[in-house]
Amino acid sequence: MESLKAAIPESVKRAIGDSNVEDLQSTCTFLHRFFLHFDPFHQIIAQLADPKYGLCGKSKEDALKSKQLGNECFSNADYAKALDCYTQALRKAPLDVGDMKSNLVATLYINRATVLHRMSLLVECLRDCTHALQICPSYAKAWYRRSKANASLGNYRNAICDLNVAKILEPSMGGKRQIEGELKILLDQCKSTSAMVQIQHKENSCNTVGEMPQVKLQCISIPDKGRGMVSSCVISPGSLVHSEEPYAMIILKQCRQTHCHYCLNDLPADRVPCLSCSIPLYCSHQCQIRAGGQMFRMYPEKDDTFKKMPSDLGEYASEVIQSNDSEQEIEDITEHKHECRGVHWPVVLPSEIVLAGRILARFLLNSTSDSIINFVERLELSHCYKHMSSESKLDSHIYAIVLLYCLQHSCGTMFSIDGVSISQVVIIISQIKVNCMTIVRLKSIDAHGLSGHFGQFPLKSDAHSTSNVEQVRVGKAIYKAASLFNHSCRPNAHAYFLSRTLYLRITHGVAAGCQLELSYGPQVGLWDCKDRLNFLKDEYAFHCQCIGCSEVNVSDIVLNAFHCVNPNCSGAVLESRVHDCEQQKIKHFTITDLVEKNDDICEVSLNVFKQNGAHIHGQPGYCLKCGSYCDLESSHAAVSEALICIKRLQDAKSSKEISRITISDALISLQSLRLNLHAYNKLIAEAEDSIAQAFCLVRELQLSVDHCKASIQILEKLYDTDDIVIAYELVKLSSIQLSLDDSTAMESINRIDDIFSRYYGRHADLVFPYLQYLRGEIEKFSVKAIQ
Ligand SMILES: C[S@@+](CC[C@H](N)C(=O)[O-])C[C@H]1O[C@@H](n2cnc3c(N)ncnc32)[C@H](O)[C@@H]1O
């Protein structure tokens, strides 16, 4: 793409950089004309969109190589590697290699099933057997392997049926005799097992709890913010106000090997590749079909195999291979279909551009005309073209043209590529910039840096771990209706995702007519006002007008503040960057407005308000409470030195080489931070947190609790006391308290429960299954108390 950009004449670049929405048709036409006469452009398009040059197609040779490697790993009992090799082979294997008796894909599924069985992943093994049978229903080895998996799962009745089918289909007499022997053993086992557990085989499903929003919202015009959502009645915390499926969604590049390309959930060991290209991996056939449509459904071989069997066995076998996905309703939004065929533009272009392609493909699929005119109007999303930098405007022009040519090759629909259609795509790209939501999942990371899911509860031997919560970014999506919610750095609504569905809940009670606002990322407590404003300008191209950025709050004053030179003064000293930003806000206030009602603000900056909005000494570096001058340069130097030492502790923690000397040094540095920084400065909270984790690793648990609490006390000044960030910190605290058998853990867990139910309502246990474990621990304390 850089070569294309470099070749564009300066005059065209300038015209694009200076363009407004009204100029778009002509700037797009200029650039398009230039590319049409520029040979390298056509070469790039051919490489990106012509299946002849595609790098993501199926290849029998590559599949066989990976299969061979998998077989070798299996022989060496390296099952994890063998699993990986068979999955790679499945990604590359064309479905039509081999006949129905020895199809390559079916063989690979059975090889992988054998590995999964050895790894005791029985449900996954069962699913792979079924996948093999959906391709080759008369594959005796697959029925045999399925019987083994069912038997290991205690599912004896199915195991016997599978083995009976295998016996009929097995061509060799020797094989039949062996199966008969195994059938006898299985029947004996079955008789001796009093309770025959029938474990139903289910595809991985993107399950969600069917809760519907109960509250009516209104969309109105809001000064300085465009349209926005408001409540039509009083809404209590924890209420669900909106849920929505995406208009279009895309997985992030870094998650392609770990998450399902359709539902974005974690991939299981028996991940399912696309049938026609080697790009996506899915958690189930259900997701594969939903992403690709009917053509991605595997229809079993039509023959009379099962008709020749005793009727009950034939019925059983037919049911097995037709299970799950064959009757599923398929939506017409097939996000992957137009990207499939082995072409590699969907892998090479940036995620946002591929997302724009998905939006357009959806439109073209449902549109009666093959023209892209008026598309933007029908999408009804706001955009920020006017505020984009010259560089971004040029990039969006180039990508719009490239994308349209790639789509024309891939979609099968012919549409005209001209100034009009290109300008529509440029606008879509700027709509994505403003309206796109990042999909995140919660993950647990323990003090040893090991990650897992909160569904995996700590064993007693892990008692010295702290459990941290980490948010993993997995995808990007456009939710049309949710795009009408504006941003606030002090939000009263919270968005989260289960599978592909977006849910929006009210976190703080709101009155009728109140604006309902989410955070697009920045939040009071996370960054100071200046950083938030800069971020929103860079990422979303607007100047934030929210309450957090226009009214004084303690967090913005103290988050990066220095300590007053007077050791007994609790006033904050600001450097110029923060000072100037706060001055802007302070101008609008009088002491009676705010300070009398707010002890915290009084504590850190009383003098500013006493002067009723006047400039305090006109410069940064003076205490906002007592007016004393502070030499910020020497404070900066002392803080930098202390932070180097804290960083050393963090590095030692990551390399697991923590020593008491490193902790002692960090404690001295913490003291220096306390002397130089304001008591509520975020750096102190972070240092306290690092020291708490270090003490946890060396098993000084009480000291760990003390530092963890100190960190939380500061964060409670920066965020609301019932912010989700506080709940994440309490998760760490409670896990150490539980290790100490400390009954005050109950208090922490109750607070976590309360905060999570306001942010996630009835979905709290689904999003964060670790909560169930924590509640269980509370019950244990209660039982102990009664005894
Ligand atoms: C996702 S849209 C929200 C809906 C939008 N107001 C509309 O009319 O369609 C994001 C855009 O809304 C506006 N916006 C959202 N929050 C804002 C805020 N706190 N201050 C100023 N503008 C805001 C900005 O123009 C931003 O680009």
TrEMBL record:
SUPFAM superfamilies linked: SET domain, TPR-like
SMART domains, alphabetized: TPR
Domain of life where this protein originates: Eukaryota
InterPro entries: SET_dom, SET_dom_sf, TPR-like_helical_dom_sf, TPR_rpt
UniProt-listed Pfam families: SET
Domain SET as annotated: residue spans: 215-521
Database matches in PANTHER family: TETRATRICOPEPTIDE REPEAT (TPR)-LIKE SUPERFAMILY PROTEIN
This protein's name: SET domain-containing protein
Native source species: Phaseolus angularis (Azuki bean)
Lineage: Eukaryota, Viridiplantae, Streptophyta, Embryophyta, Tracheophyta
